[in-house]
Design brief:
There is one protein chain. This protein has one helix at residues 104-128, and strands at residues 10-24, 45-54, 63-72, 82-94, 169-173. By secondary structure, the protein is an alpha+beta fold. It has a 5-stranded antiparallel sheet with strand order 1-4-3-2-5, with helices on one face.
């Protein structure tokens, strides 16, 4: 019997590419065609920058704009086959009224970043597949470290702070 898919408590309303650069690393060594497909990201420094803003429009009730930027510049740590600088923005609406107002921004941040990352991951794989080293699949990640009870990240939980820009640059070692 078929099962019905349940809608998520957060809906992606719009998505935009803000920046996109995927460049194979120059090397004096021969690069085997399609070698990136099996690349292990362990030790690669992946930088992330995140911005979240409560959208002010009346028709955008419970809506947030999230920007996620990923950078692999290969300046530190293990070198990846590509230098990557990609940013996507999305407008998200929380459609579940049971999510407390004080937790909506955190909910949008964690889930919005997860959705944007999956788009970034797909687009990087698609574009890199046209280069000699071949497609690279960014590692699977989660954004649960953005929870406000985690001391590493401060996410406002009241409406006064919801218009603040939350920029964070963090090095992720995968």
């Amino acid at each position: 019997y078929p099962f019905l898919m349940l809608h998520s408590s957060i809906q992606l309303r719009e998505i935009y590419c803000m920046a996109f650069s995927v460049v194979p690393n120059e090397s004096d060594e021969f690069i085997a065609p399609r070698s990136a497909a099996s690349f292990d990201f362990d030790g690669v420094m992946i930088q992330e920058m995140i911005k979240i803003t409560k959208l002010p429009h009346e028709e955008a009730l419970n809506s947030f704009g999230v920007i996620l930027r990923l950078i692999i510049d290969n300046k530190e740590g293990k070198k990846a086959p590509y230098s990557i600088d990609v940013a996507f923005a999305g407008n998200f609406q929380i459609v579940d009224s049971s999510i407390d107002d004080s937790k909506q921004e955190e909910f949008a941040l964690i889930n919005g970043c997860s959705m944007l990352y999956s788009v970034i991951r797909d687009q990087v794989m698609l574009i890199s597949s046209r280069f000699i080293p071949g497609p690279i699949i960014l590692p699977t990640v989660n954004f649960l470290d953005k929870k406000s009870n985690n001391e590493k990240v401060s996410v406002p939980t009241n409406s006064e702070d919801s218009s603040k820009e939350h920029k964070k640059q963090k090095n992720k070692k995968t």
